[in-house]
Every structure is written in C-alpha cells, then in structure tokens.
Fold VTT domain-containing protein.
Amino acid sequence: MLESVGALTGSPWIYVMVALSVLLDVFLPVLPSGVLVITAATAAAAGSATGRVSPDVPDILALTLCAAAASLIGDLVAYRLAWRGGERLDRAIARSRRLTHAQERLGQALARGGGALVILARFAPAGRSVVSLGAGAAHRRARDFLPWSALAGLAWAGYSVALGYFGGQWLGATWLATGVSVLALCGAGAGAVYVVRRAPKPA
C-alpha cells in the first residue's frame, strides 16, 4: 500500500493535479479535490514517519500553500465571471430551485455573519461556489470579499492537509487512514451546512 500511494503522489506533478482540481471545483463541486489533498498529505506523513516511501513525496507546507493559492485563484475567476455576467447567472440559478434556495440561505447568513461565514461556507458542499459566484453577481467589492476568500482557502487547505498528515502518522499510508480523514472532512462540511442553515435571517 505504501508503494502504491508513493507512486501516485511521489511526483512534482502532484502539485499541478492538486492546483487544477482545487481551482476547478469552484465550477464543478463534484471534483474530489479534498480527497486528493488528503491522499497527498497521507503519503507525505508516511514518508516522514517510515522512510519507506519515495523521498519525492509532497512537502506539507508546499502542498498547503498550493491548495490555498488555487482556492483563491478559483474564487477570483468565479467572482469576475459572475461580475460580468450577473444577469445571466441569476437566470441560470433561477432555473434550479435547489440553487435558488441555497443562494438565498447563504446570502442571508452572509448578510448577518459577515466574512466569518465566507470561511465557514468554504467547508460546506458547493458553499464556495455559491459564495464566489454570488459575491460577483451582487457586485460586492473585491476588497470586501477576496481577503476572506484567501483566509477561507488557507483554513480549508490547512485543515485538509492536517487531516491527511496526522491520519498518516497514526494509521500509516493506508486506505483506512485516507478514509478516516475524508470522513472528518465531510463531518466538517456537514457541520458548516448546519451552522449556515441555523443562522437567523437578517432583519
């Protein structure tokens, strides 16, 4: 198992794969960017703990910064596209009852909770997409949105890498370690959804 994980993540290309996956999942939330980040961090943990994996395993700090930077860039691209096509985006969202409801609820929460909920929404399924596209469509000022987006990306990347790293330290580079870490990431997402939904409507 150690060798197979090392073969997957023991190349500098892992940073490209992570960056593309994280950047694009603002548009395609089904992409397993969190799983990829956790898997790379698990391999890095196993390499530092046992030395049995290729020395080319990802660097933890570089992996965290790569994922965080890709998250911010993806948010910025989505924000700018929505800014330029706000009316078309509103019509597209209006066709989906689920997306409309999600946008309304998250918009209400952001109006009351401010930037802190931009960070929280980063952990919720599709929350990043709704926040970035919604901020652009509503023509929110970049200086009010992007700093919180950067902090949200760093928090998510740090949490995901930490899950994979410590899971790998405790359980080794096994699918069990990766699975437990992914479940913890999903748990954080479920908690974020709960808090956002419980946020009272603004007056």
User: Anything to note?
Assistant: The first helix runs from residue 2 to 9. The chain has a mean pLDDT of 77. Residues 25 and 31 are 5 Å apart (CA to CA). The chain is about 80% helix and 0% strand.
